[in-house]
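A common beginner's mistake is to predict each chain separately and then try to dock the pieces by hand. The better habit, illustrated here, is to supply every component at once so that their relative placement is modeled jointly.
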Amino acid sequence: MNFEFADELLAVRDGARSFLAKNAPTAAVRRVLDGEAPYDAATWRAIGELGWLGAAIPEELGGSGLGHEGLCVLAEEIGAAVAAIPFTSACMAAEAILLAGDAEQQRALLPGLATGETIFCLALAEGPGNPHPRAVKAEVRGGRLTGTKWPVADGGIADRAVVVAGDADGGIGLFLVELAGPGVTRTALESLDPTRNQARLDFAGAPALPLPAARGWAAVEAVLERSAVPIAFEQIGGARACLDMARDFAMERHAFGRPIASFQAIKHKLVDIYVANELARSNCYYAAWALGADAPDLSTAAAAARVSATEAFHLASKENIQVHGGMGFTWAADCHLYYRRAKLLSLMLGGAPWWKDRLVTRLELTNADQGA
Amino acid sequence: MDFADTPGEAEFRAEAAAFLERHAEPLTGANAVIRGRVPDEELLRRAREWQALKAEAGFAAITWAPEHGGRGGTPMEQVIYAQEEARFAVPRGVYEIGLGMCVPTVITHGTPDQHARHVAPAVRGEEIWCQLFSEPAAGSDVAGLRTRAVKDGEDWVINGQKIWTSGAHYADWGLLLARTDPHAAKHAGLTMFVIPMRAPGVEVRRIKQVAGTSNFNEVFFTDLRVPDSARVGAVGAGWKVGLTTLMNERLTVGGSVGTDFDEVFAFVRDLDTEDGPAIRNPAVRERLAEWYVRSRGLKYTRFRTITRLSRGQTPGPESSIGKLVTAGKMQEIASFALDLQGAAGVVTDRAVAPMGALFQETLLSAPGLRIAGGTDEIMRNIIAERVLGLPGDVRVDRDRPFSEIPAGKR
Ligand SMILES: Cc1cc2nc3c(=O)[nH]c(=O)nc-3n(C[C@H](O)[C@H](O)[C@H](O)COP(=O)(O)OP(=O)(O)OC[C@H]3O[C@@H](n4cnc5c(N)ncnc54)[C@H](O)[C@@H]3O)c2cc1C
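With all components supplied together, the output reads:
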């Protein structure tokens, strides 16, 4: 048994950690938070050059060929740094294009995605509610897209969108739309996590090209599932950072003549975070393996990673504020960056109850298979 | 990442599986050979027979050196054997304390004579051990124990009381932690002994537990006389010796039987409600998902531990969370499964209660798992201090002579 990332990937992870610590400190995230920049372009460019965005993209399509496990270890570091970059959207778009794009589209689109030159977004939601085929009202007729998508993560900064819409056959498909092209109106939306752009996209006959190789709601689900894995790594990265912050603060802060880290209420709280983080990490490792190996239980593994990582980041980010006391409730302390990001990441692929339900559905199906 | 055995591991696994298939029945859930499910006499008899078989086949003490009757195998082989054995209905709950905790302590700290006397019979299952640490006034704070051992010529004379001693009523030997110097600081005045449980001067009284069964006991010592050769480790070194036992305990506890995800999943798929099977209920689904990820999280955490073992490294901090998570989850699952049974949830009659009253029985046994082998709170303290490096508790009793430390009323 070898249930650990390969040594090369661990080296990639360590390199990423020190790179981000030096080049993407929270000061850079704060420039986006404070509205001085729409995203952290310098970090985006740099990680594009380093090949992180193309980790799961084959080399012949412009990727760095590190594989999905490589993407996952990088995602953890990006999550730990709460980087203000459209990374999550890039993961989702890459999965969509790898799954549903034809060979020519993959050759045309993926190299730009991998370098970060083209920013992508995935446009699925049409208002409140978790992903559902009946909630998709946008439609493409004669190559033109009409409808409204909101919120679209990174919709305000993306060059291209992968849009989920109804097609002429009454089915659902994935379509590619140039956001600078005709028939597209973008409206910025204020959001809980201003370090990641959110927009409303109105399409009035915008030219839309189908990604023809996979269709139907199943294709949408596959994209969500496959991207849920690296995103779960972002979540455990964030949760890890929160535990580190809370621990460091608790060791230094004194009250009643002793470090607050010596109070049992604080110690046990940190242990509960640690336990949730470890359980989530282990579920994530398994999902990374399942994604890389295209294992038959990928759906289950991805949902389990998603559920436990969401839970862990939620716990860690809220209790990190609690450990910091009044300081934790300030704009100046970094705690809220993680609190905001935790909620964003837990919502953008569908909320926790939705994933829990999917997980149980998967388990019912597998069990029925085994019974048969 | 891969989940395959190395060729050597695969060979060992095949050998273990072949042994088990030849001698044991596959576990079905209904045929578990554990306390409460089979009568005590039968459990002991079958456990003895099974232990002898295992010893003969070389699976009873896999990691111990050959001179201690072991196989000289690796921790990885121990894990593989345990994985394989978990699929079979073999007797459990009799030898774990001896072979998992007490005898390893004797091996680490005992004399060659003690090794020669105790190890082989324990491995073959001829002698059963119990752990005599906890006392009425010393559980979590076990170093606060009061049972006295006083030197008298070449012998030690022991007086005092232990409590919560699992299996004392059928054990042959006990590993006893006693106070030899009440004027030294608390941890410095302790010494470890091996004592014969059937000697005059040892009285065992059963204690009835929450579930109505009795597996732990009170043990009274009245002028029990043992030779100095019964001492394990130096006089005053008892705390250090005892830590070896406790470390092993935390690896041993947690393998106990109760309800986990698979049981509750099977149950809610079968349970009929007004709206169809209970599994259709969103509240049920939400809980199922939470238990599944905790259960799998632990399983894959064990995989991470095994990976380290397989590479010859020591397990990392991730291995410390098992008992804490398992015990709480088990209690929650049992309680929720009963909630779904409505008024019938109170019925413990195995003939009529769903799944042979498994959930009812677990409701009553789970509290013990949260206490035995280090309470939930003590486990959190340990993880906080050893894993996260947080400061220890403020100790008001640390450097005072034991005799001057105030005692509580309970
Ligand atoms: C089923 C079972 C089998 C057992 N078998 C054996 C055995 O074979 N041999 C043996 O020696 N012992 C055995 N024990 C005893 C067990 O080790 C003790 O019960 C346990 O260590 C707790 O000690 P206590 O009962 O004295 O409770 P206490 O230590 O008095 O604890 C009472 C409460 O106070 C809390 N508490 C205590 N100290 C702290 C602290 N520092 N910080 C926070 N909270 C604290 C505890 O968590 C608990 O909630 C067994 C117990 C059980 C339940």
